[in-house]
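User: Please fill in residues for this 251-position structure.
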C-alpha cells in the first residue's frame, strides 16, 4: 500500500544503535511513534539498541489508515524485529494499546523473544467489536479515540478521526492474538492503568491469566489514563521496564 500523505513531524520511525540487546517498541491504533519515543530514548540512553517502527497507514492521514489491514501492521513490527535481529542477540518487545496487542503477537510467533512489556494492551474491546459488526450503519469516519491522558498539559499525536473500516481490522487482530495467548512462554511484565477510557483494564488481567509464562507480573499504574507512556506514570514505566530488561538480558 502506497501512502498518499507525508509523514507528520514527530511520527517518524526511530532507530538507536546500542548493545547486542535490542528493544522493539510499538505505538497503538490511530497513534504514532510520538507516544513511545520517550521510552525509546530512555532505553537507548541505557545502552540498548532500539527500534520504534511507524505502523503502516499511521502518522500520515486517516485516509491512509483506512486502506491498511492488520497484516500491514504486523508487517511493520516484523520489519522492526528483523532490523534488530541483524544487530542483536537478545530482543525484548514493548508496546502501548494495539502496540501491546502486537507485542503479544510477536511473543506468540517468535519464541526467541526474551521478554515482553505490554502496556494497556488490547485483546477485547466490546465497543470496537460492536462498531465493526455494525459498520454498514455507521459513517465512514468516527470521532477520535486518541489522547486519553490524565495530564492536561500533554497531547498525543494521533488521528482526529477513526476509519470505521479500521475497526474491523483491529477486531480481527485482537481475536487472532487472544486465541493464541497460551503460546506465550517468555517472561512478561504487564502494565495496566487503573482508569482507562479506551481499553478496559480487564484486558490486562485476562492476558495475565491466559499466557503460559512461568514469570509474569501485572502492575497497576495509578496516575495515568490510556496513553500512560505520555502521562504521569511515564517515569514509573521507564524504571520498571528497564529493571525488567536488565533482569532478563543475561538469561
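Assistant: Residues filled in for all 251 positions:
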Amino acid at each position: 500500500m502506497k501512502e498518499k500523505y507525508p509523514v507528520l513531524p514527530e511520527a517518524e520511525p526511530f532507530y538507536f544503535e546500542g548493545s547486542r540487546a535490542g528493544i522493539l517498541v510499538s505505538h497503538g491504533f490511530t497513534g504514532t511513534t510520538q507516544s513511545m519515543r520517550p521510552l525509546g530514548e530512555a532505553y537507548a540512553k541505557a545502552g540498548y539498541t532500539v527500534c520504534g517502527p511507524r505502523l503502516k497507514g499511521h502518522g500520515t492521514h486517516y485516509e491512509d489508515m483506512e486502506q491498511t489491514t492488520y497484516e500491514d501492521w504486523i508487517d511493520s513490527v516484523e520489519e522492526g524485529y528483523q532490523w534488530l535481529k541483524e544487530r542483536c542477540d537478545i530482543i525484548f518487545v514493548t508496546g502501548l494499546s494495539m502496540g501491546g496487542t502486537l507485542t503479544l503477537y510477536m511473543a506468540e510467533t517468535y519464541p526467541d523473544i526474551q521478554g515482553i512489556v505490554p502496556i494497556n494492551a488490547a485483546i477485547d474491546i466490546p465497543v470496537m467489536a460492536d462498531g465493526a459488526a455494525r459498520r454498514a450503519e455507521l459513517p465512514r469516519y468516527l470521532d477520535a479515540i486518541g489522547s486519553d491522558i490524565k495530564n492536561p498539559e500533554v497531547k498525543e499525536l494521533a488521528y482526529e478521526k477513526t476509519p470505521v473500516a479500521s475497526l474491523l481490522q483491529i477486531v480481527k487482530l485482537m481475536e487472532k492474538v487472544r486465541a493464541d495467548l497460551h503460546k506465550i512462554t517468555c517472561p512478561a511484565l504487564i502494565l495496566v492503568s487503573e482508569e482507562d477510557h479506551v481499553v478496559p483494564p480487564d484486558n490486562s488481567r485476562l492476558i495475565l491469566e491466559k499466557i503460559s509464562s512461568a514469570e509474569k507480573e501485572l502492575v497497576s499504574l495509578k496516575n495515568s489514563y490510556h496513553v500512560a507512556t505520555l502521562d504521569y506514570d511515564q517515569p514509573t514505566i521507564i524504571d520498571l521496564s528497564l529493571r525488567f530488561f536488565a533482569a532478563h538480558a543475561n538469561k
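For context: The chain has a mean pLDDT of 96.
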